[in-house]
Amino acid sequence: MSGSETSTSWQRSAEPDLDQMRRLVGLVEHDTAADPFPVSGWDAVVWSVGNATQAALFYQTVFGMELLAYSGPETGNRDHKAYVLRSGAVRFVLKGGVDPASPLLRHHRRHGEGVIDIALEVPDVDHCVAHARARGATVVEEPHDLRDEHGTVRVAAIATYGETRHSLVDRSRYTGPYLPGYVSRTSDTRRTGDTGDTGDTSGQARPAGGPGRLFQALDHVVGNVELGRLDEWVAFYNRVMGFTTMAEFVGGDVATRYSALMSKVVTNGNHRVKLPLNEPAVSARRSQIDEYLDFYDGPGVQHLALATSDIITTVDVLRARGVEFLDTPDAYYRDPGLRARVGEVRVPVEELRTRGILVDRDEDGYLLQIFTRPIGDRPTVFFEFIERHGALGFGVGNFRALFEAIEREQARRGNL
Ligand SMILES: [Fe+2]
């Protein structure tokens, strides 16, 4: 069976279909038979946030995500509140500590807003864990079953960079909204008044009239790792998870006057899960990766790229709702080299310029992309929105233009 012909249960239950997914995130053919660590796709991105109750509302009203499920004191979870949201095939789980002794609060105190778990859907949890353990991975959660009236989920977790983990999830025998312990909550939930129905007081409802779906899939999740340890982490993904190294950006490609980084990308067989990894490179001034490592207090997820089929609308709606994007210098669009480099794209360059959307082309096609400012108080995690037209890369031609824009922001914060 060809791996690219399989879709995860999550993909089957939600738009987009496999063909759309192939266009959105650039899938390639892959034979899973020879794969030592088969991965079907992303399961969820699990966040530690300072206020999950409010963050859930933000991701519904601003990012247009739908609320799916909830866990908290009202459902027997006295440690934290957790909200499960989705947009297309993207699933976020937002967790905020309730019990003062919750480990989530310790995590948040140290790192601020951040991703604690890049959960992956795998067809055989035990097989993956056995392989990972034999190749030296730290198993932070042994394989076990979670059960409720909706069925059984098999889960385990292995450690990756910093305090980040990869949960490995097989939900093929489960029909519930997320995991046992969670109850269904929808964005359309309306309270019917003071009926004393306490079961309805926990989920956050998205107000009517909010935006529709602004992104359909998770394209890649980028990690920042320690100086000098990039190759070690690339080797970890190669050895432990059978991921291949799909691209390398080093030195001159991404160095600007003050910043430099080294970046390599590892991916699973069909490229559904793409994990670029950065480390700071020696440069004249503090690089953006150094700034991240200082303020996150260690390695962690730097950005998530969300795939959209209409980046113009996505950016217009998000900006109207207050999301701030990095500025792109006008010089980027005036550069005659830009048009020569990218050729024909679906929207006039002027439309891109007014929104600050970047464009890049590789041998397979082109892509449009834009980056938000950090989403929390610390200069750490941010989002990218990406619209692919065949291109399988990450916008390497934009790296210099992008980093120059980031450095202007760093200078404004006094961190350059
Ligand atoms: Fe990216």
UniProtKB/TrEMBL annotation:
E.C. number(s) listed in UniProt: 1.13.11.27
Matching Pfam families: Glyoxalase (PF00903)
Gene3D superfamilies hit by this protein: 2,3-Dihydroxybiphenyl 1,2-Dioxygenase, domain 1
Binding site for Fe cation: H220, H303, E384
Similarity field: Belongs to the 4HPPD family.
Compartment(s) of residence: Cytoplasm; Endoplasmic reticulum membrane; Golgi apparatus membrane
One Gene Ontology cellular component: cytoplasm
Subunit structure: Homodimer.
A GO biological process held by the record: L-tyrosine catabolic process
Protein name as catalogued: 4-hydroxyphenylpyruvate dioxygenase
Species name: Candidatus Protofrankia datiscae
CDD domains for this protein: HPPD_C_like, HPPD_N_like
NCBIfam families per the UniProt record, alphabetical: 4HPPD
Cofactor(s) in the UniProt record: Fe cation
Keywords, comma-separated and alphabetical: Cytoplasm, Dioxygenase, Endoplasmic reticulum, Golgi apparatus, Iron, Membrane, Metal-binding, Oxidoreductase, Pyruvate, Repeat
Keyword Glycoprotein belongs to the record: no
PANTHER family: 4-HYDROXYPHENYLPYRUVATE DIOXYGENASE (PTHR11959)
VOC domain residues: 41-171, 217-373
Membrane topology, record value: Peripheral membrane protein
Free-text comment on the cofactor: Binds 1 Fe cation per subunit.
Enzyme class: oxidoreductase
